[in-house]
Amino acid sequence: METAAVASSGAGRRIMVAVDEGEESLHALNWCLANVVSPAGGDTLVLVHARRPRPVYAAMDSAGYMMTSDLLASVERHANAVSAAVVDEAKRVCADHPHVKVETMVESGDPRDVICDAAAKMAADLLVMGSHGYGFIQRAFLGSVSNHCAQNCKCPVLIVKRPKE
Amino acid sequence: METAAVASSGAGRRIMVAVDEGEESLHALNWCLANVVSPAGGDTLVLVHARRPRPVYAAMDSAGYMMTSDLLASVERHANAVSAAVVDEAKRVCADHPHVKVETMVESGDPRDVICDAAAKMAADLLVMGSHGYGFIQRAFLGSVSNHCAQNCKCPVLIVKRPKE
């Protein structure tokens, strides 16, 4: 049967969850913990986060002057702090589910590539993500990250939307 | 918490699986049974199938003559037979999982509308589908059914690809 290669519930699956600074990705993580992860234990949750690469225009300020190395370092520090906060919050959510082993993976780059590459590299059995991560502007120009992953990742992709209040 | 409205594993979730004549949708169904449906029972699986509406050109044959009512009836019979076979096969797969309650739902129409409407009407907690159902031609003109559902259904959408041999 086609499912022979897929571990059955609780038999040590690697479930990857893409986390970003939007609350939708936290909702996706919660949904996955409540509905997909085996309550009997044995699954590994891999939290993957794409840290934005330093944008090109960051090398100059708005007046066209080169930014000082202090300012560049500050931009970099801010990006790192955001990444750390995102991953810490996701780990905190997972801490309520002690039967799940948690790993984290942070890479710089376009989230579409980071997430698909991570899913392939870690041989994920499932990729879970929100539908609208990574901002309106990026989505308008580059298309939805979740659409890209649903089309390009080899593993099953679960797209979870933010519930309407 | 956002997950409060979502039943936890095994607590009577309604999981909708879109089935068509492609083997990818059978794989999606199998993956769902092995990885999402609670082994403890309590979940309901709703098999939804979109029967193709009779195409407009079916009212005339290639020479432009009106088709006889016999021929129209035969086209209709064939479509019904295909639908019945798809649903029967999916039910047969589910029969190996007696802890799951199975319902079926067959509607005529564009699969994108049929599936999204069904998920809303049945208040599905999750929609599961293959990524490439409903044929190359339709996809080229209308876009992927799974992309449409991932963007437009309110519930989480799990897209399962056919494994590469």
From TrEMBL, chains A, B:
Domain named UspA: residues: 13-161
Pfam families for the chain: Usp (PF00582)
SUPFAM superfamilies recorded: Adenine nucleotide alpha hydrolases-like
Matches recorded under Gene3D superfamilies: HUPs
Database matches in InterPro entries: Rossmann-like_a/b/a_fold (IPR014729), Universal_stress_UspA (IPR006015), UspA (IPR006016)
Signal peptide: none
Protein known as: UspA domain-containing protein
Species in which this protein is naturally found: Miscanthus lutarioriparius
